[in-house]
Batch of 4 targets.
Target 1
Amino acid sequence: MAAAQGRAGGGFLSRFASGLNFSFNLGGSSCVGLSIGATSVKIAEVSRKRSSWVLERFAIVPVQSAISETREIANSEAISSAIRDAWSQSKISSKEVCSAITGSGLIIKNMTIMVGNQKELQDQVFWEAEQYIPFDIGDVVLDYQVIKKVGNDYDCMLVAVKKEFLDQYIQTIEAAGLKSRIIDSESFALQN
């Protein structure tokens, strides 16, 4: 995947601000997932055992009025506290988590780009993105993935997230004493 903060590349919402590492090479180790929902915070640790995944630890902590209708964090202190409680209750030792975002600060758009070669693709995707993004392009982190290529036509999936929206999630997770290993889109996370 190519990504951009402005016009640089690297991976979905990659290396934004805090130098997040988006390589999802777990090998034989475990992975911690964190879900920040409208009514609860959930944390789970899974590990790979031979050819299957095993749920090792899990906790759910309810929260009230901490997420707005647009899925923005309305009360980061309450969410951070719930994350700390869930992490403590689950007895997970790793402080690196994989999480996902959704809401009005996130835009996902399919588009077809016609370019002569792949070197021109990123510039063209980001130029086209300005037509679809209802925010100032300087206020978003952009990324895209080529879904299919036929001749000079590239079917791409464009993802854009408002920087302040992403920052809010990262800062809330860090305020709980954890570190974001992966930040994904909720709709993609369900399939990954």
Note: Residues 1-28 have pLDDT under 50 and may be disordered.
Target 2
Amino acid sequence: MFLSPKACGHQELDTNESVGRDGHVGVAGTTRDVVSIRMKKATSGNRGSAMKSNVPPKTVDEYLAGVAEPARSTLNRVRATIRSAVPPEATEAISYGMPTFKYKGGLVAFAAFANHCSLFPMSGSVIEALKNELKDYFTSKGTIRFPVDKPLPAALVKKLVKARIAQNERKKRL
């Protein structure tokens, strides 16, 4: 039985030939050695990330320093808007490799990627509740995407943050 090159994790050469991870070429069930063909192993982590370095950041400032422009300026504006809306007791941290604000639990996170920036409200219900105001943005269950050169409107970010604060405060009272 002959599997397609892509199904076996091989690099495609022509219709009947492929190179495996071990550097061997397979031709419809036969194998022969190839000396100089090697596949580059894919690296894990930072898939699509806009980070310049492979060293994981320890602080939000380190994260932002590693983000290329214009995403860095965009995320700095989002960060400033979030800071203006959170209580003084709120903290910043890196969680799952992303800048995160915490207040009585996770509040919101944000990140830069190759072609967009994202805000993560850590609550699908907040996104659902504000879906009319988010109609101009790509959203999923826990993500709001926006262009690397255009931050979300400050009023919208504040509204999202205030809603998350209210959720976390209700949760802590129970």
Note: Residues 18 and 125 are 48 Å apart (CA to CA).
Target 3
Amino acid sequence: MLRKSLLLAVAAVLVLAASAPAATTSFKVPFSRIDEIECVPPDLVLLEGTLHIVEGVTVDRNGGLHGHISLQSQGITGVSLLNGTVFRVVGGTRLIVGLDGETAPLIGTFVNSYRLIAPGPNNNFQVQETYHLTVDATGNVRVLLIKAEVRCNA
């Protein structure tokens, strides 16, 4: 499942971006993590590759900040740590945030949706997660899981 550390890292980027002028940036970062797939049988999948990240912040006429971050997998593959099955990862993540004026809270919605696709029948998984993110005036980050779903053999 999506690691809380990824959400905290995204929140940190947004807090830093909130102090910057309106802009859009694009960059790539290495990616590696282990996903626990809760199907029958359960599986652990090591995901590795590159994430392409596009982030942008705009300022409205009232001084409100509106930001977005999109993460797309580029060449990310997964390998089952239990049986060696190799997966291709497709999909992405989107975070939309808003800050009214110059004071907190920063409020956002984080949607993560991707598929692990392997050769053969009944080897695919689909992961969908939705989080609500709040960063208060002191920088405390609160993440609330709204929905998490893994579809087996999707």
Note: The beta strands are 23-37, 43-59, 65-80, 86-99, 106-117, 125-135, 141-152.
Target 4
Amino acid sequence: PTRAIFDEKVNEFVKVFGECLSLQSFAEKFDSDKIDLYKHEAKKFHNLKRSAALQYGDSVDLRKYELELVKILDENIKAGAAEVLTGEIEITNRDALNRAIEDLGSNKSKAEAIAAQTERRIDQRREQDEALYEKFSQRIKEILEAMHQNKLADIEALKQLRLIDEEVEQKKDSDLPGSMREKPGADILYRNLKAELPMSEEMYEATILEIDAIVRQMATVDWWRNFEAKRKMRLRIDDYLYDVVKVQRSVDISNKQIEKTIDATVLLAENNHAVFGR
């Protein structure tokens, strides 16, 4: 709430000051030193807003106020400064994001900023692979907690958070068995279906690979937008889980567990349709 109020006040100041600069009477009533001071304050407030947004994972976008900000800048630095002040730091533009974070100063501020921005990416991708991203999120929380309790040096926390940031980008999972490492999509099912499939590790891996094969076989063009295609996929998975897993392999799996597995599989496939689709 405090940051939101500050952002609102900064935006209001920028807008009003920009309008004032266009008035001839304003320049007559305020000398150049006073106007330069206001310009300096506008830039300072913007930098504070930008730093806080990075550190707490907020969106950083002042393009709405581009015209007002351009008016505030000195003529000779207008183009470059306008780009810096009004551009949004996209969390997908990791180079720009990292450069902005490096300007924050202390290792603690950098660590908190990396943690916040990584959590933003995790939140955006969580539905694609809940088990994997929850593991990343938990590691981030543990590192921040240790840093804040002075159980972990700021520089070490920064180092570990940068490593997690890279792992999130690469979807790295050191706990993944070899049979899943070369099968994009199967790894997602492996991580997220285990709770409803009580069986040995060897059988579980085989089951996941077979479910993955069914999904790929049934994933026709734009299948995730087609109710009938999804219905047929669900039926095929249902038949496999009941006839093969439950009956042939004598796995003690209830109808409710089968239903939950089907729901989770289709939802995961939908949320990762680029991986499973044709």
Note: The chain is about 75% helix and 0% strand.
